[in-house]
Amino acid sequence: MASWAALNVAGGDARASAAHERATEEAQDADNAALYEQALRCQQKQQISEAKEIYQRLLRGPSINPRLEYLCNKNLAVMQLEGRSFHEALEFFAVALALDATDVVVWCQMGATAVETGELWLARHALEEGLKVDKTYWPLVQMLAEVLNEIGDEHAYRRVADYIKAHDPHCASVRLLDKDKNRDLKLLKKAQKRLQHLHEITERGVKRREVLVDERRKELEGKMRPRRYPLVTPSWSALGKVLLEAFEENNRDEQADVVRTAVEIHVNYDEEQGMEVDAEVEVSVTEEEKTTDVSQDDGDHPPPAKRPKHKEVAKSFGALETSLSTGISDNDTQDSGIHASEVEELQPRRRKSRRNEERLREEHAAAIKKARENDLAYRLGAFLPEAIGKTTRDATPESSMRSFIS
């Protein structure tokens, strides 16, 4: 292209250089267009190698416009896809879509190529991007539904499937997939019924075990129910009879647990009975004193001076008889002598004949011996533990019984 410029005009060289560059670019674009048309003709004639070579020459050229570069990469990707070179096809598709992402067909072809390579995540991405470009390109939408179903994204699949049904109720892929889903739902319902039945059986077993445990607990409570026995009189013989009665009753009862059953012994006598016993002892002491006075009168001795009766002396004498009747001491003569001396110190001074004293001592010893032979508590005394202290041995039967029961 020729142009005229004066030699003395400033900037004439720059304008000439720019014009020359534009002429060069236009000439290069014309040459590239001619080569591209030649590659297309080779591709149509299935001359794949010649077409690939021309496309590669164009891409390696010093100057190529973006549109022609996009077309060359797309055509190379299609030829690689047809030749089942899927990984090379993905590379060319990626370059082409980086240059121009507005072609939904290219997105669909890239998704199909990614499916062939097994990269379903890449196929899903390509198909979803194509769906954004055009939602009415049904081959892409159908392929996206199939990929989502294969991946297992039920929510996304249901959304795409509903969209397809709304526009194409006769879509074969969706109908087939939904049929499988319905069959799966039936299988799930059957499995759910079996699991529910198994759960109900387990719950019945648990309830049955709870009922058995409750019945067993009530049975044990009945067997271990405390049994109460009254103790009418404060004596060892009465206590022994109560214990024997409790043992025999529990042994006869088939439902009772002899080892675990609690036995409660209630003391029913009151303080009035104890006061009556003290009164009887006091009366017996008074009668003995009268007998002693009569014997002294028979011996022509002057009667001693009258003194008031001491209630404490009578009670001490009663305690003496009861403690001796328990049989704790083995030396009868020694015990009787010791307690007799204590009683004599507490009683008023009287003039007594030796014969009368010996007679009273013999009668007292005989009474103690007879009481021991007839008393069950004395025979049970051998079973008392040796660890009983002196304080417990010297206690009265009433205090011992009350401390034992408490």
UniProtKB/TrEMBL annotation:
The keyword Nucleus applies. Its main location: nucleus. Residues 278-363 are annotated as: Disordered. SUPFAM superfamilies: TPR-like. InterPro entries: Hir3/CABIN1, TPR-like_helical_dom_sf. It comes from Phytophthora ramorum. Transmembrane segments: none annotated. Residues 287-303 have a biased composition (Basic and acidic residues). Residues 322-336 have a biased composition (Polar residues). Keywords: Nucleus. One of its GO terms (biological process) is chromatin organization. Gene3D superfamilies: Tetratricopeptide repeat domain. PANTHER family: CALCINEURIN-BINDING PROTEIN CABIN 1-RELATED, CALCINEURIN-BINDING PROTEIN CABIN-1. One of its GO terms (cellular component) is nucleus. It comes from the Eukaryota. This is Uncharacterized protein. The keyword Nucleus applies. The lineage of its organism: Eukaryota, Sar, Stramenopiles, Oomycota, Peronosporomycetes.
